[in-house]
Amino acid sequence: MERKMQFTLPPALPEGCIANILSFTSPLDACRSALVSPTFRSAASSDAVWERFLPPDYQDIISKSSLKLSSLNSLSKKDLVFHLCHHPVILNNGSLSFTLDKWTGKKCYMLGARELSIIWGDTHTYWRWLSRPESRFSEVAELKVVCWLDIKGKIDTKTLSTKTTYAAYLVYKFATFRHGFKRSPVNMQVKFEEEEGGVTSIVFLDPPFATREQSQHRENGWMEIKMGEFYNEQGDDGTVVCSLWEADNFKCKQGLIIEGIELRPKRNL
């Protein structure tokens, strides 16, 4: 006698329970889960989920900018997260920007050129400061001519997301006329300020051969090149220093335009 197998579907989870589970994931996972069912879609859009994707101090960060927090409070938490992913919040009188990483919801910062230490940066003979419509900052630095390149950016780890591996990128482009970068590499390093040594990489900002290209084009017309990475455990490791300096001493260079140094969570591909 043939025995028929019977299957009983488990009871559906309450929407509030689903929302609580999704709040421990990421913006990307929440968006994907919305495709599962109408119940998941409703849970994945709730403020309870997206509030967890916002940094605990996001209101304090926004309050230090020219933005009015009241105008952002009218948005749903989901819309607020996406707004902060795509619209940089400008801080420190225009020299620093804050955004959220759209994949993880973690903090991203860009140190604008005015936030960096650029050797001879205030000497008009060597550098000039100008505005570019494609930049998020009111000023960027353009190299007129130097024979020694030395740029540093610093950020305190307590401002970043904890338990996160960050990568630092130089964001730059070249003027119409440039010189001295095609076959001259530069040194790059990212390390904690109190750390001895540190890993140094040698890169070409303007690679001589396409097969040796190390930089990537950004959607906004700038280029970026990875300087290094570090792990931020609890935000109590002090200051991280991102450095770029000359590899070939005393070679004349010109035409480099610096927008800043961006720090964002490393993506595991």
Keywords:
about 270 residues; alpha+beta; nine-stranded antiparallel β-sheet; five-stranded antiparallel β-sheet; 7 helices; about 20% helix; elongated
The poorly predicted ranges are none
User: What's the shape?
Assistant: elongated
Distance between the termini: 53 Å
> What value does the average pLDDT take?
89
Structural class: alpha+beta
Q: In percent, how much strand structure appears in the residues? A: 25-35%
Major pleated sheet: 9 strands, antiparallel
What is the total tally of β strands? 14
Helix-strand topology string: HHHHHHHEEEEEEEEEEEEEE
Radius of gyration: 23 Å
DSSP summary: helix tally = 7
Question: Could you estimate the helical fraction of the residues in percent?
Answer: 10-25%
Domain F-box: 13-53
Pfam families: F-box, PP2
Protein name: F-box protein At2g02240
Organism: Theobroma cacao (Cacao)
Please describe the topology of this protein:
Blueprint: H1 15-22, H2 27-33, H3 38-44, H4 47-51, H5 58-63, H6 69-73, H7 77-86, E1 89-91, E2 96-100, E3 107-112, E4 117-118, E5 127-130, E6 140-143, E7 150-156, E8 164-179, E9 186-192, E10 200-203, E11 216-217, E12 223-232, E13 239-246, E14 254-265
